[in-house]
Amino acid sequence: MATLRRQKRYKLKSEINVVPYIDVMLVLLIIFMVTTPMMNSSVDVQLPQANAKSLQQKKDPVLVSVLQDGQLYLTLSGEKKELVDEDALKLKVGAFVRENPEVSVLVGGDERGAYGGVFKVLADLQQAGVAKVGLMGQPEQGKSTSNGRK
Q: Would you call 114 exposed, middle or buried from its count of C-beta atoms within 10 A (0-12, 13-18, 19+)?
């Protein structure tokens, strides 16, 4: 009889205690729910709009024009356009932006020109210390539909 009691008392359970696993899964779920929005908020994408209105600015912007043949023209704060080369562009725009950090810098390129000319100007402006650059364009005339697409 004593041996029967020992066998019943020491009988192994074949059940798994799932309570700790549920606790761990709930903690992981909360961690993922909190961190997922933080990972997506670091991406700032501004999509172009078809019928965008012009920006209202307090100061005149710095305008950089890239012609079809690659010539660069610079207009500082409403002054006359002047023909510049890449080095002069870096120096003048860099100095002007350091004095007026809130001024906008806009780049306009001829649509018939090569993309490389505008790309080179954007790289030069970055080297000059310009943090934000806008691209200029003309609004479409009579080609838009009700949803803003061609």
A: middle
Sign of CA dihedral 48, 51, 53, 54: positive
> Cα(74)–Cα(128) distance, rounded to whole angstroms?
14
pTM over 0.70, yes/no: no
pLDDT at position 25 is: 95
Structure token digits, residue 101: 């950090």
Q: How far is CA 1 from CA 7, 10, 124, in A?
A: 10, 15, 95
Q: How many helices (H) and strands (E) does the chain have?
A: 4, 5
Neighbours of 71 (CB within 10 A): 14
- Give the C-alpha separation, 72 to 109, whole Å: 9
Confidence at 44, pLDDT banded by 50, 70, 90: very low
115-127 and 86-99 helices, crossing angle to 10°:
50
Give the whole-angstrom CA distance, residue 69 versus residue 65: 11
